[in-house]
Amino acid sequence: SSAKLNISMSTPPCQWTTLRPYVFSSLLLLCFVTLFFTYSNFEMKFPSFNIFVDRARQSSVDTEPDTIVLIWMWPFGVPFDLSCSKFNIKKCQFTDDKALYDKAHGVLFHHRDIHGNLENMPKEPRPWFQKWVWFNMESPENSGLIPELDDLFNLTSNYRLDSNIPVPYGHLEPVKPEDESFKMPVKDKLVCWIVSNWNTQYRRVQFYDEMKEHIEIHTYGNAFGKNINDQEYTNIVSSCKFYLAFENSLYHDYLSDKIYSPMKLGTVPVVMGPSRRNYEDHVPGDSFIHVDDFSTPKELADRLLYLDKNETEYTAYFDWTNRFKVQQSSFGPTHACETCRYLQRNKGYQAFHGLNKWYWG
């Protein structure tokens, strides 16, 4: 038949006879191996490809040179600590040596220390890999606009959340099991205010002048001829049920230490600044009292007097302490370390155009 003809043509009889024992042996071996793996618990482990990838990545990190950040001018002329250990940021080298300008990956400039004529800015061209970082924590009202800065920087580091390297004055972190639980400090005062920058045109001053007619407010600071140190500040604020956290200027995201310090010290801040909604972008809505929630200073005073007599409602303002704790930023070190972290993660070219419009509007 044709089938037999094809077989005989493709495999000569003598060759098939020779191969037949090997074919049967191979089939038997295959059956044995299959049964062995099916009915045994034997596991063969092969090296994971991820191990080699992880090792390659680690090797790359280990051999990556340190990120150099040049502090071009110390903020207000005051040097600060240059360690990033508490931020868990590694491989950062900080310096104020301008001779390393050509090697620095980033240069940090503090706005309030830039001269209006830019005479204290670098004279040499910026290296192609280098990023200039505009650093400022004052509100626009307390920061002089310099037109020549408009298209000069690559990045911004500011309290605003839409900054390239946002550094708010504080933030809330989840509490850890090892953290000490919150304990309400002893209170012997109802309302306190510590202030030095006094201007009768400020809304906070006008609000205070009316509010004090309806409730006793314990006042301290240079504005009242009572200069206090850090320890006195802690003692005073923690001993008050409410603290007037009135900002000197009202701008989006501008929440200074005036709110974060009282929260950390176990006092309810009464805030004046941006809108309640903007405050709630930063802290829980039940952790503070906003002046805009009241039609008059007297109405606010009446609310505080009511809470003084109702302990359960007052202590509810501290419910957030069961979930969070306050972490305040370190002026200077936080900006330098977060700049280093950003540069390590973002190596591509960037430019920030329209600084003046973005910040001063």
From TrEMBL:
GO terms for molecular function: 4-galactosyl-N-acetylglucosaminide 3-alpha-L-fucosyltransferase activity. Residues 185-358 form the Fucosyltransferase C-terminal domain. Residues 66-170 form the Fucosyltransferase N-terminal domain. GO terms for cellular component: Golgi cisterna membrane. It is an enzyme of class 2 (transferase). Pathway: Glycolipid biosynthesis; Protein modification; protein glycosylation. Keywords: Disulfide bond, Glycoprotein, Glycosyltransferase, Golgi apparatus, Lipid metabolism, Membrane, Signal-anchor, Transferase, Transmembrane, Transmembrane helix. It catalyses: a beta-D-galactosyl-(1->4)-N-acetyl-beta-D-glucosaminyl derivative + GDP-beta-L-fucose = a beta-D-galactosyl-(1->4)-[alpha-L-fucosyl-(1->3)]-N-acetyl-beta-D-glucosaminyl derivative + GDP + H(+); a neolactoside nLc4Cer + GDP-beta-L-fucose = a neolactoside III(3)-alpha-Fuc-nLc4Cer + GDP + H(+); an N-acetyl-alpha-neuraminyl-(2->3)-beta-D-galactosyl-(1->4)-N-acetyl-beta-D-glucosaminyl derivative + GDP-beta-L-fucose = an alpha-Neu5Ac-(2->3)-beta-D-Gal-(1->4)-[alpha-L-Fuc-(1->3)]-beta-D-GlcNAc derivative + GDP + H(+); an alpha-Neu5Ac-(2->3)-beta-D-Gal-(1->4)-beta-D-GlcNAc-(1->3)-beta-D-Gal-(1->4)-beta-D-GlcNAc derivative + GDP-beta-L-fucose = an alpha-Neu5Ac-(2->3)-beta-D-Gal-(1->4)-beta-D-GlcNAc-(1->3)-beta-D-Gal-(1->4)-[alpha-L-Fuc-(1->3)]-beta-D-GlcNAc derivative + GDP + H(+). Homodimer. This is Fucosyltransferase. The gene is FUT9.
